[in-house]
Amino acid sequence: MQPLLSAHDLHVSYGAVKAVRGVNFEIRQGEIVAFLGANGAGKSSIMNAITGLVPTSSGQVKFEGRDITGAAPETLAPSGLTLSPEGRRVFGTLSVADNLRMGAFALNDKAALETAYKRVYDLFPILLERKDQYAGTLSGGQQQMLAVGRALMSNPRVLLLDEPSLGLAPLIVDQIFDLILKLRDQGVTLLVVEQNVAKTLQVADRAYVLVNGAVVEQGKPAELTASGTMQDAYLGAN
Amino acid sequence: MDIFLQQTVNALALGGTYALLALGLAVVFSIMGLINFAHGELMTIAGYVLMYCGIAGVSFVVAVPLALMASVIAAVLMERIAFRPVRNGSGATMLVTSFAVAMILQVLFQNLISTRSQPVLLPAMLSDSVHIAGMVIGVNKLAAIIATVVMLVFLDWFMKHQKTGIAMRAAAEDFAVARLMGIRANTVIAGAFALSGLLAGVAAVLWVSQRASVDPLMGFMPVLKAFIAAILGGLGSLRGAVAGGFLLGFIEIYLSAFLPPEMQEFREPIGLGIVVLVLLFRPNGLIPSATLKAEKV
Ligand SMILES: Nc1ncnc2c1ncn2[C@@H]1O[C@H](COP(=O)(O)OP(=O)(O)OP(=O)(O)O)[C@@H](O)[C@H]1O
Ligand SMILES: [Mg+2]
Question: Cα(A21) to centroid of ligand 2, in Å?
């Protein structure tokens, strides 16, 4: 089967800093795939390069067989691929409801928009309660929920989550992982970056382990835990 | 007291015009980080449309929408031709580009139209005055105040309730993430320019209504004032631009009305002195932009 999202020899640099060096991956329809690695391993850089937030220096990214390398970021959400970026990045001067509305920017059908709102408010009832409040006045955890909710508003077929549980209380963290499974059941393919490795390995079908911008190992969670590469990756060994 | 109220009406009329111009600068700045000094030439274009309409015998009621349309189209073309190629350039690059655009347009006006000031035919009604609460108020002043209020209400509604307006606010805060949401960069930027063109057009109609003439450099002074107003209010903040515009209008009118005659020649430096004083106490302006403040922390 053709992968839904794939990268070939992906490189990302910030000036002299080479953050991603020749990464390959393939994500198939319906999978939950995790990217693991220590701080600075290049996880966010990969996600940002896929969605055009940072430029790709070389290599290729394909979505549904189409080359999306260097595509204008605004074309991706309407075609079914979106990212909940690291550090929330909600629009602080917009209300919660307007943040969600922007998440569904490409959606013009009123009924579809209502369904999207309902889905997010059902997942995070606190957002409904705070819908007219400025997003900047939400607590950190609430902002994180808003960031995930905003990404869901576009009804993505592939959803990239960059540290969705950062700063959330343990109960809500469990909720996020439940959500990941629930979304998969709804047919969403997920690419997840998380600090909580144990929980991530519980939900992921496969994972890629990154060290210094390169994939050092990949496989099913059980294989990775057995091999010991993981510990090295997190200790920052080469 | 009467004279004070009278001058307050004048201050509202002038301040409103500054507010509209400062808003036009702020809308573009908040999204692109560009201070468009060619904003004044949009005013001049609208002014010339009014002039030609007067010559052609087109009624003022038709001339005004034509003038607004002209400045909107000119603003969108300006973005498309001059600013899009330097969009990812530094602030300085864009600033210099805007100076170049302003100068090119001024030279074109001088060579294609006239170097001298041209009279603009206005409806006689505009120079009438009405009596309200013991005051004699010029119809043009009243029209300026009403037009400003209408524009501010419209803009507030647009930015708060229209999808494009909300998208413009989102883009002003985090352009990259706004694009990630599917908000097209070109649409938002062209929209900001169109809006700034509309604001410049309305300001031009008000400006010309007070003077009944137009010249190639007409836009320069008011836009310089609007730039000061935008800084006074907090660069990039829309509410700040309005507050700054009105405050500057009040400072100028009150100084010219109440400063003793022997000090009148120092009016401008005293006015700017007050602006600097305000900025000393509020370095980020009266109502700083939330986004810019956040970046500094
Ligand atoms: N805008 C930038 N400019 C310069 N260097 C950057 C930039 N963004 C990231 N880097 C560098 O690129 C490397 C990879 O960063 P990246 O954010 O992708 O790591 P990460 O795996 O997401 O880390 P974390 O787990 O801390 O989020 C790091 O060395 C980082 O310092
Ligand atoms: Mg990261």
Answer: 16
What's the count of helices (H) and strands (E) in chain A, helices before strands?
Answer: 9, 10
Q: Which of B159, B180, B295 to mutate to probe the A interface, most A CBs <10 Å?
A: B180
User: Is A94 in CB contact (< 8 Å) with chain B?
Assistant: yes
Q: What is the average pLDDT value for chain B, to the nearest integer?
A: 93
The domain in which residue A161 lies consists of 5-87+156-235
Q: What is the pTM of this model?
A: 0.91
A52 lies within 8 A of chain B by CB: yes
User: Closest Cα to atom 24, ligand 1: which residue?
Assistant: A39
Residues in chain A within 8 Å Cβ distance of B291: 93
Number of independent structural domains in chain A: 1
The answer to whether the Cβ–Cβ distance between A102 and B167 falls below 8 Å is yes
Question: Looking at residues B229-247, what average pLDDT do you find?
Answer: 94
Residue B134 CB neighbour total at 10 angstroms: 9
Counting beta carbons within 10 angstroms of the beta carbon of residue B164, is it exposed (0 to 12), middle (13 to 18) or buried (19 or more)?
middle
Residue A55 CB–ligand 1 contact under 6 Å:
no
Residue with tokens 């490189």: A11
Cα–Cα distance between A51 and A232 in angstroms, integer? 29
Looking up residue A39, the CATH number of its domain turns out to be 3.40.50.300
| Full 3-state SS string of chain B | CHHHHHHHHHHHHHHHHHHHHHHHHHHHHHHHCCCCCCHHHHHHHHHHHHHHHHHHCCCHHHHHHHHHHHHHHHHHHHHHHHHHHHCCCCHHHHHHHHHHHHHHHHHHHHHHCCCCCEECCCCHHHHCEEEECCEEEEHHHHHHHHHHHHHHHHHHHHHHHCHHHHHHHHHHHCHHHHHHCCCCHHHHHHHHHHHHHHHHHHHHHHHHHHHCEECCCCCHHHHHHHHHHHHHHCCCCHHHHHHHHHHHHHHHHHHHHHCCHHHHHHHHHHHHHHHHHHHHHCCCCCCCCHHHHHHHC
- For ligand 1, is residue A40 a contact (CB within 6 Å)? yes
The domain locations on chain B are 2-123+133-281
Q: Kindly determine whether residue A94 and residue B170, on different chains, have CB atoms separated by under 8 Å.
A: yes
pLDDT at A228: 76
CATH class of B2-123+133-281: mainly alpha
pLDDT at A238: 47
Residue B134: the pLDDT is 79
